[in-house]
Amino acid sequence: MPPVDVLSAESVVESNTESPLSEPLLAMNQQEVQRPTTGRVMQKPLRLLSGPGASPTVDRVPTRSIRYIGSKARVAAQITTILGSWRGRGRFVDAFCGTGVVGREAADLGWPVVFNDHLVSSVATASAQLIARADVPFQRLGGYEAAVDRLERLEGKPGFLWREYSPASATWGAERRYFTTENAARIDAIRDAITAWQVAGVLSVIEARLLIADLLAAANRVANIAGTYGCFLRHWSSSSLRQLHLGPRPLRLNRARFEATCLDVFGLATEEEDAVYLDPPYTKRQYAAYYHVLETIAEGDAPGVGGITGLRPWEHKASPFCYKTRALEALVSLVTRISARRVLISYSDDAHIKMGDLYSSLSLVGDLRIHELATIGRYRPNEQASAKRAAVSEYLFELHKARSQPSCVQ
Ligand SMILES: C[S@@+](CC[C@H](N)C(=O)[O-])C[C@H]1O[C@@H](n2cnc3c(N)ncnc32)[C@H](O)[C@@H]1O
What we know:
Blueprint: E1 57-58, H1 76-83, E2 92-94, H2 101-108, E3 113-116, H3 120-128, H4 144-152, H5 160-165, H6 181-199, H7 205-221, E4 251-252, E5 258-261, E6 275-278, H8 287-290, H9 292-299, H10 327-337, E7 342-348, H11 355-362, E8 366-377, H12 383-386, E9 391-401
Parallel strand pairs: 1-4, 2-3, 2-6, 3-5, 6-7
Antiparallel strand pairs: 7-9, 8-9
Helix pairs in contact: 1-2, 3-7, 3-9, 6-7
This protein binds S-adenosylmethionine (SAM).
S-adenosylmethionine binds next to helix 2.
């Protein structure tokens, strides 16, 4: 098996200590291998409200292990320091929320938060970070822990995930090794049960979203991948052979004010007082394709899938920010259309748009400052990649747009 040619690497924060590089890879799509790093989390001591065995209710929820291309987990605190505390007006709009780590930090500074992403899986994952115990009583199921426990005890029930993303798929065509047959059948059973509870009116929207986020996190922990679902590994990694474990997460003690939408960013409405945070994709990696399996779990559907990786239709979510020729125009057009006057934009010097071009274009829209956030080491897997630059810097563009002039009426 030849080594995988890594095209480039982006910042991926994770706390999984097992190196994804310890296994030979089966490269399917153009894909990257991420460098394992550990996100440092400032955390208050957990406060247990209910009895032993209950998931803790906490003042500040610790960051869960979420591996995601372009996650800002390592710089989220720096970004929100620049944002500052809430002054009683406006919302923090995390318009490309991904894992939601930045919105979560903003909520801890008192901001009402809007999460938006065009991926259902991201919106569920981000929302779950701000859910408080009082938001999810799970009245008809005896509480959150009892609901999770019931799902955890379900027998596997072979369904779509089992058929398409476990070795069972060999019966119908290409063998896909994203999950073991046992874990895939359990994911199917749990996802089915959540849908059945929804249909029976047993769950509120937010309760369903929490359980789906728990299932996404659990599936991610046992997925046989090297960071994204752009390919699966040829050999089973040790984590993928573990049994899927759902487990309740710590929930917030204090309710956060937040909303979540799953819209194309160009359809997202903002208000003048809002602070809008933009963290668009920087490279050609289309998130809808790279996280297609998580998206299918979150949607709970059974789309027509194809190819070696069983890719679901994703082209309708192709992001203009992922095309070198369109990224700058798309970003400037988005910033110009946003009604909010304060816009914060994350960008990197290893991305489609050249920093100088971005600076020149954005400075025409308002007052602009650039903050350097961090320099992130790069994973260098081979000579070709080593020849490239050794580190990537992350920046935050802080833009104050001029107040729009009212037009004169004669
Ligand atoms: C760089 S990631 C955001 C990472 C996030 N800030 C975090 O810390 O996890 C970019 C996100 O933009 C989303 N996205 C890409 N194009 C989009 C679009 N046109 N509308 C809405 N979301 C989009 C992707 O699904 C992805 O989650």
